[in-house]
Amino acid sequence: MNEQQNQQPGGGPPQASGPQGGTMAVAPQPAAPQPAAPAPRAAAVPNTRRIFLINGIGLLIILVVAALIYYFWHQGYYFYNTDDAAVTGTIANVAPPQPGSIIHVNYGLGSTVSQGANIATLRAANGQTINAASPIVGTIIQEGATPGEVLPAGQPLAQVVDLNSLYVTAYVEETRINDVHTGQGVDVKIDAVSGTTFHGTVTRILPTAASALSAIPTTDYASGNFTKTTQRVPVQITLDGYQGHTLYPGLSASVTIHVHD
């Protein structure tokens, strides 16, 4: 007997005729396997936070370098700084006009004296009394007179300085001395007076290098071992005032000269 396949109404599975004229169900054919869908790929989103951070750091470095370049240019162009400076003053020597033996010392170290004050009395060989007088008003900063000591004419027995007329001497490199002129403003700091900035004015530029004023030559040209060094020119700075402080010759200082306003 031939087998027949009958389609069931309603779309059911096809039926096959059995040997007894009945029908039997036909197993549905398995569907062909479908290819697996690819796994979703993560979106390639740039790490903007990291980019911003790197760019920010780079920009900050550029700004810092630019600020440093500007600062050093500004300082070098508008100011000249040196700590090769000291408080100085006009020091006057007290000496006998004639040779004689010291018989009395009238003022000691640190004494304030007037112009013409007799610092020491001497006796000449002929018995004449000689006075060693101070040529200026000031304070005795050095005194070595000893009674009985015999001094030749003109030999200093004391030194006097006017503490009210002190100034600062700064030594400016010869490569920058053309930038310095009288009348320029100066800021002065003195090591012995911390936390205070004094103000002054350039009043004098000595027409010689400091090495030429030294009692001991700093360069030996005759030896043949000459090494060129930058010379320094003394510049005198007059202070506007002491701001209530007492200053003495020899105190170390640092200065800032306003070379360009």
Roughly how much helix do the residues carry, as a percent range? 10-25%
Largest sheet: 6 strands, antiparallel, barrel
Poorly predicted ranges: 1-11
Number of strands: 17
- Oligomer classification: single chain
Numbering strands along the chain, what is their spatial order in the largest sheet? 4-13-16-15-14-17
The CATH homologous superfamily of the domain at 81-88 and 166-258 corresponds to Efflux pump adaptor protein, beta barrel domain
What name is given to the CATH topology of the domain at 81-88 and 166-258? Elongation Factor Tu (Ef-tu), domain 3
Q: Quickly give the structural class.
A: mainly beta
Order of helices and strands: EEEHEEEEEEEEEEEEHEE
What is the end-to-end distance? 125 Å
Chain-averaged pLDDT: 84
Strand content: 25-35%
Radius of gyration: 50 Å
Any idea what the shape is? Answer: rod-shaped
Summarize the structure.
The protein is mainly beta and 261 residues long.
Question: What brief labels describe this structure?
Answer:
261 residues; mainly beta; Elongation Factor Tu (Ef-tu), domain 3; OB fold (Dihydrolipoamide Acetyltransferase, E2P); six-stranded antiparallel barrel; four-stranded antiparallel beta sheet; 2 helices; disordered N terminus
Tell me what the structure shows.
With 261 residues, this protein is mainly beta. It has 2 helices and 17 strands. The strands form 4 sheets. Strands 4-13-16-15-14-17 form a 6-stranded antiparallel β-barrel. A 4-stranded antiparallel β-sheet has the order 5-12-10-7, with no helix packed on it. Strands 9-8-6-11 form a 4-stranded antiparallel β-sheet, with no helix packed on it. The protein is rod-shaped, with a radius of gyration of 50 Å. The N and C termini lie far apart (125 Å).
